[in-house]
Amino acid sequence: MEPQAQEQFVLKIIGPAATGIVAAFTSYLAEQNCYIVEMAQFDDPYSQKFFMRTVFRFQKTDKSDSPEFRQGLDAVSQKLNMSWELFSFLKPPRVLIMVSKYDHCFNDLLYRFKKGELNMSIAAVVSNHLDLRPMAEREGIRFVHLPVNKDNKPRQEAELMKIVEEEAVDLVVLARYMQVLSDDLCRKLDGRAINIHHSFLPGFKGAKPYHQAYMRGVKLIGATAHYVTSNLDEGPIIEQEVTRVDHHHLPDDLVRIGRDNETVVLSRAVRFHLEHRIFLNNDRTVVFK
User: Fold this and answer.
1) Measured between alpha carbons, how far is 230 from 102 in angstroms, rounded to an integer?
2) Over the stretch 221-251, which tens digit does the pLDDT of each residue have?
3) How far does the chain reach from its first CA to its final CA, in angstroms?
4) How far is it, in rounded angstroms, from Cα 105 to Cα 263?
5) Whose CA is closest to 163, among 192, 143, 187?
6) 215 pLDDT above the threshold of 70
7) Is the peptide bond before 202 cis (omega within 30 degrees of 0)?
8) pTM of the model
9) Cα 74 to Cα 87, 88, 138, 151, 276, distances in angstroms
10) Which end of the chain is more exposed for a tag (fewer CB within 10 A), N or C?
11) Cα–Cα distance measured from residue 134 to residue 199, given in angstroms and rounded to the nearest whole number
12) CATH 3.40.50.170 domain residues, the chain
């Protein structure tokens, strides 16, 4: 019989770099009878910020996250001018997936979710088309059709935010959702919306990027997952993947290879976010893989 898994927590810490940060927090966790399972830290010399991710569990089964425990974290953090967040792996983030007509990224996310690779709860699927409705409803997932045009875009985005708020959504995943979000919506979803871009950014923009790449005779194609910002395709990059190609590959070959890259990169980025491995560092990210 396998031992029953104990609840594990993730403590994320960010603030100005200084001496004694690791010692202060690990000492506090030890005082609270916590067992540290995993820890990673990074000191960025450019932003002069310190980042730390710690996975731990309480060694006594009758102890768990409490107001007193959090007050202690506050006290340690204030001394060092740090900010912190605490998450439990037993409370999977609520995720809303946005799609259009392409199904490869959505299908991959569903597969990994069903296999237990992605610790999340899918709140709903929102789409501007009806093509992927059967795929969502086959899995018992709420599907919301919000067609978008230049006249109804503000109203439809308001409906989207209503769903986000009603469903207590933690993360929005644009799984090849083929609509540009407004600046206002990007600001509301800051740090909690991930997009997959069909190239290795910076790259070829506009229509048919793989055909542009083919005409330029590229030797590498890739995909980029990034947080959504009002600057189109310029948000903080989370994960990237490239594949080497040559003169034998035709545009359809590049599309096929790119499709594989997109699914892999998006699933990695989503998993990193769900496992609280990502820290925003101005326009960049720190990702403890």
Assistant:
1) 23
2) 889 999 999 887 788 889 999 999 999 999 8
3) 30
4) 5
5) 143
6) no
7) yes
8) 0.92
9) 15, 18, 45, 47, 20
10) N
11) 28
12) 94-287
How many angstroms separate the CA atoms of 106 and 108, rounded? 5
Buried b (16+ CB within 10 A) or exposed e, 268-285: bbbbbbbbbbbbebeeeb
Enumerate the CATH 3.30.70.260 domain ranges in the chain, comma separated. Answer: 9-88
- The catalytic residues are 233
At 211, the pLDDT band (50, 70, 90 cuts) reads confident
If 0-12 CB within 10 Å is exposed, 13-18 middle and 19+ buried, where does residue 72 land?
A: middle
Mean pLDDT, to the nearest integer, of 171-186? 96
Give the CATH superfamily of 9-88: ACT domain (3.30.70.260)
Token pair recorded at residue 8: 């594990």
Residue 41 CB partners (closer than 8 Å, separation 6+): 21, 22, 50, 51, 52, 53
User: Would you state the structure tokens that stand for residue 26, as one six-digit string?
Assistant: 């690990």
As a CATH number, domain 94-287 is: 3.40.50.170
User: Is 224 within 8 Å of 201 (Cβ atoms)?
Assistant: yes
Token output for 263: 């699914």
| 136 and 130 Cβ atoms separated by less than 8 Å | no
User: Which of 207, 190, 265, 228 is closest to 98 using CA atoms?
Assistant: 228
Cα torsion for 106, 109, 111, 117, to the nearest 10°?
Answer: 180
